[in-house]
Amino acid sequence: MKNEGRILLGLGLFFLIMFGFYWPLSHEQSGSTMMFFAVLLGFLPGGYYYWWSRRMKPRPEDSDDADMAESAGFIESFPGSSIFPFTLGMGAWMSVMAMIFGIWLAIPALSLIVWALLGATAEARRGGHH
Amino acid sequence: MSEHVDTLTHDDHASHEHHGATGILNWLTTTDHKIIGMSYTITSVVMMLIGGALAEVIRIQLTTPTGSLVTFSQYNQLFTMHGSVMIYLFAGPFAFGALANIIVPLQIGAPDMAFPRLNALSYWLYLTGSLTMLAGFFTTGGAANFGWVGYAPMTDSVNAPGVGTDLWIGALLLTGFSAIFTGVNLVATIYYLRAPGMTLFRMPIFTWNLLVTAILILLAFPVLTAGLIMLFCDRHFSTHIYTVVGGGSPVLWQNIFWFWGHPEVYILALPFFGMVTEIIPVFSRKPVFGYKGMIFATLSIAALSLGVWAHHMFTTGVVLLPFFSIMSLLIAVPTGIKIFNWIGTMWGGQIWFSTAMLMSIGFVITFLIGGLTGIYLASPPLDFFTHDTYFVVAHFHSVVMALVLGAMAGLYYWAPKMTGYLLDERLGKIQFWLLFIGTQVFTFPQYIVGLNGMPRRMALYPNSPEWQTLNVWSSIGALMIGISTLVFAINCFYSWKRTPAGDNPWDAHTLEWFTTSPPPHHNYYRLPKIRSERPTWDYNHPDKPALVHGHNHDGESS
User: Fold this and answer.
1) Which CATH number, 3.30.360.10, 1.10.3720.10, 3.30.70.3040, 1.20.210.10, labels domain B35-540?
2) Which residues, in sequence order, are bridge partners of residue B528?
3) Where are the domains of chain B?
4) Cβ(B225)–Cβ(B173) under 8 Å?
5) Helix B205-236 / helix A29-53 crossing angle, nearest 10 deg
6) pTM for this structure?
């Protein structure tokens, strides 16, 4: 887990150095803002991974000489199939159509989205469908 | 030999076949990364055919100085939609949605992507977004017609009143969210679903490059999405974010667009770098030269790519020229390391000139040409001279045609794993020579005609008939590329269920070649011990195992 954190922290650090040059030299607002948020996007998740990596045991995938049996156990979070990604996708597509062709399309769009969210939640609570 | 194998005990699903819906219902409800990846592959290749057809019309129009095949308005739509389809709907989704979706979980020994349902949602957003953008052709005002970069003020409600523009914006919102979700999925998969022993520094370079690509997607795509929402507000809700009239700034759009757009170039390129880095060692019968160097080159390219966006805006006069020039020139260093390492991998190897290998070598050569001309363009004085000429067009077409060669290399290499059947090598080699020679015939005249001053995005050039010869040559190249694509389509039909591939037809190195072709539901019945970045090679050749990389304690290097 440490290296995963280090990658993001390293990218954040690099963007911070770039920001340190770019903003004082240019005083250009939009690019500096975006660069600043790129720094945060490196530091926030990177810091979180690094913080956790110091508080947890190394995982089998982080160890050089792990055996397959070390990650034994039932993995339950892989649904075999589900209609709700399609439903949600159609809802999202119709929302965009509503932006372009008329707000009345938001009614079927939102219906599809709500149906997909409720359905997917119920499906996940049942433990997925195989 | 069996003592090298650990039976995969932790996944109850892997031990039995999947029983679910079949046919169209299976396609609509699937969350299997392999089926979603195949859908991505087919959809994005169809998009390539559509974008390519638009390009052929453009090239026919330019064979004479006074071409009358299309009107000015149609020509504007053609080059806009050619660029948009190729960048947003083919290159990006093919790079991080198609092969990545299938191969990344296989390469790290994962049963699926981390969020299988989100993965399916990504595909549906991509498909509906693609259809939405193409629907612009069937509206009364026609499709978007302001260039694929959509510069303000050409996109405002006065200059682009048609619904085609709104469809273009909507399509980019949909495909943008699709890309962001794929990015989340790839990072989570690579961080959390690796097999035991598959440390970060044992991952195949392709997976590494997709990890870095996914991080770049998360940095870049939200910026584009936000910019597009502001553009939509400008068009419909009378805000003045990109208009001078209300106190806004048209250059803000350029900053936002290229802050996405330049990382996007590397989002497109890095997956293909990864594919080539997988293929060259396998067909050179050697481990990759400079494994860690490749990874750090990838990371430096990604880091630098966030600081170069305004080299597309040198002629606006409001950017910090030295900063962006230096950063752009610096990117040549890690890219040079990569090209050096590819050559170093081939050096002294027993090279097997299969179609995948030929395509990879073609990629390296064509990318080198595109990269070197990019170094000229990173210098502001040279950029002022060539900005918006065919020199720039030729530069990025060298780069993207290299990516097409890389895409074909990836398809020839991994098609056996995806379908269980080899693609025909004879047709593949015909395709390679047409594609490779066609690419050079297509781009070289454009470099020269650009230096002679021909601007891009022109439907006619009646005052400079001397440009015609070079344009005809360029069109001949484009025709050769078109024919090569037809050969590829023929090959797909010809090779369908003809030559079974077996699990590992290339004697390859990485984990995906350990499982069956095509892989079973949830990918693996068993996994080998992972002790280097070449686990399948170590298992098949226990007498000459790979050098051990990535150990983090002393005394274990071999």
Assistant:
1) 1.20.210.10
2) B5
3) 35-540
4) yes
5) 140
6) 0.93
ipTM above 0.90, yes or no: yes
Residue spans per domain, chain A: 2-61, 84-125
Dump the DSSP string for B187-225: HHHHHH-PPTT--GGGS-HHHHHHHHHHHHHHHHHHHHH
**pLDDT, tens digit, 9 for 90 and up, residues B488-517:** 999 999 999 888 988 999 999 999 999 998
Chain A residues inside the 8 Å CB shell of B107: none
Measure the CA angle with vertex A55, ends A52 and A57; round to 5°.
Answer: 105
A 15-34 → B contacts, CB under 8 A: 15, 18, 21-22, 25-26, 28, 30-31, 34
Nearest to A93 among B31, B118, B128 (CB): B128
Q: Tell me the pLDDT tens digit for each residue of A18-60.
A: 999 999 999 999 999 999 999 999 999 999 999 999 988 888 8
Give the Cα separation of B69 and B328 in Å (integer).
Answer: 39
DSSP code per residue over B417-431: HHHSBPPPHHHHHHH
CA–CA separation, B477 and B474 (whole Å): 5
Query: What is the C-alpha separation between B226 and B253, in angstroms, rounded?
Result: 11
A68–B10 C-beta distance less than 8 A: yes
Q: Are B349 and B404 in contact (CB under 8 A)?
A: no
State the Cα–Cα distance between residues B192 and B317, nearest whole angstrom: 46
CA atoms within 13 A on the CB side of B501: 30
